[in-house]
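Quick one, tokens below. Sequence please?
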């Protein structure tokens, strides 16, 4: 599937090990609902949710999507709980965390950390496992 200039390939994901387990990362995000401290920092928010204190090595979400695409780590369809959902909004790529049932959590386009129905946020998305290959 072509997504903008990115070609999405199917690949069976390997097990991802992050400093913070998936449910702990989701809970970390849910504890920050309503916070405006993360406005315009969705990639940093997701990186920190999964336990990485240092920079991800990506400039922004678009840079991350290019890297993930190059390494065949992007997927179509319904994102499983804890997956990173990369979506197009307001002429740029953003990232949130899948909660399941078509919902995501993260700093959304209008500012605060919130839960939203993905189809109401964007009609154009792909997902990846929570991979931060350069994070520490």
């Amino acid at each position: 599937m072509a997504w903008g200039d990115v070609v999405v390939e199917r690949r069976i994901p390997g097990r991802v090990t992050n400093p913070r387990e998936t449910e702990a990362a989701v809970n970390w995000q849910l504890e920050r609902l309503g916070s405006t401290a993360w406005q315009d920092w969705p990639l940093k928010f997701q990186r920190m949710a999964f336990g990485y204190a240092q920079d991800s090595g990506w400039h922004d979400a678009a840079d991350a999507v290019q890297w993930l695409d190059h390494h065949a780590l992007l997927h179509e369809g319904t994102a499983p709980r804890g997956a990173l959902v990369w979506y197009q909004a307001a002429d740029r790529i953003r990232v949130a965390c899948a909660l399941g049932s078509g919902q995501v959590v993260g700093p959304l386009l209008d500012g605060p950390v919130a839960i939203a129905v993905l189809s109401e946020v964007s009609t154009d998305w792909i997902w990846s496992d929570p991979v931060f290959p350069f994070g520490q």
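The longest strand covers residues 92-100. Residues 9 and 49 are 26 Å apart (CA to CA).
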